[in-house]
Design a protein that fits this description.
- The chain is α/β, with parallel strands linked by helices.
- It is about 40% helix and about 25% strand.
- A 4-stranded mixed β-sheet has the order 4-2-5-10. Strands 6-9-7-8 form a 4-stranded mixed β-sheet.
Length: about 280
């Protein structure tokens, strides 16, 4: 067994939150540059160039790369040989978020869903934990803006709709979203599981590097075909009608019930922010 004091978790969350709020992921920046190189439309090219320049200024000035610094989503894979010492895990996560959003001058966006009263410190975070083998903890911090989150959808398809139904659900979600989620988007997809687990799978999918295809070839083919059809929509960067509407499509899957085919589509804007660390 390995003992880990939760103050280490708090400090790691603090560090990851400060990094993710300022820096785009390397794969996102690479995809934006590729989209710019391949764009012939003047308006889209200008918009892509502006997004790339903005990301550089954010890093140079140590400022938030987007004004929506998001709800804090934390994905944590915890080795079953680990036990925690100190404060509650959730308290440690929230304390790390609270400190980072204050010190980073990040916008505090979390509120009560009914009264709409702001919690003033961007807590509580959304925390998902999974027990895995080993004695390490794999932490992913994802600040999720809601311009794109609001465009996400869950479909309870019939099994007979199959692969074509899955691809149609992905493409229709992006088509209906149009320019509202600040494209070019990154599309995370959960296939299978149940109503709730397919949504979590979709969230996990957008923590993958853009361009990293699923190891299952049939799932990878869904990713490629969905991306092709999305970019044929001609929505383009910021809705200016160009070649790149999506930077990538990533799918995760799980076994499901014989009577169903759940599909969740989680939209991420062009501002892909995700920081990871293994403890």
């Amino acid at each position: 067994m390995r003992k880990i004091n939760t103050k280490i978790i708090e400090d790691t969350i603090y560090k990851l939150a400060l990094k993710a709020g300022v820096e785009l992921t390397p794969s996102c920046l690479q995809a934006l540059n590729k989209a710019y190189e391949n764009e012939s439309g003047q308006a889209c090219a200008f918009a892509l160039k502006t997004l790339i320049e903005n990301s550089g200024i954010a890093v140079k000035e140590n400022m938030p790369v987007c004004q929506d610094t998001g709800i804090a989503v934390v994905l944590m894979e915890i080795g079953q040989e680990v036990f925690f010492d100190g404060k509650l895990l959730s308290d440690a996560v929230n304390d790390g978020v609270r400190r980072a959003y204050a010190d980073g001058y990040f916008r505090k966006s979390v509120c009560d869903p009914i009264t709409r009263v702001n919690t003033t410190d961007n807590t509580p975070a959304v925390l998902h934990t999974e027990i895995v083998a080993g004695d390490k903890i794999n932490i992913t911090f994802l600040p999720k803006g809601f311009g794109s989150e609001n465009m996400s959808r869950i479909y309870m398809l019939k099994p007979a709709q199959g692969v074509e139904g899955i691809i149609n659900a992905i493409v229709d979600t992006v088509r209906l979203a149009g320019a509202r989620p600040c494209p070019p988007v990154y599309v995370g997809v959960g296939i299978g599981g149940s109503f709730d687990t397919c949504a979590l799978l979709a969230k996990k999918a957008i923590t993958r590097d853009i361009g990293q295809f699923n190891t299952r070839e049939d799932i990878a083919e869904i990713e490629r075909e969905a991306l092709k059809r999305i970019n044929e929509l001609n929505i383009g960067c910021q809705g200016f009608h160009g070649a790149t509407t999506a930077l990538g499509v990533s799918c995760e899957w799980a076994h499901t019930h014989i009577a169903g085919l759940p599909v969740a589509v989680n939209i991420q804007c062009h501002c892909v922010r995700c920081a990871k660390e293994i403890i």
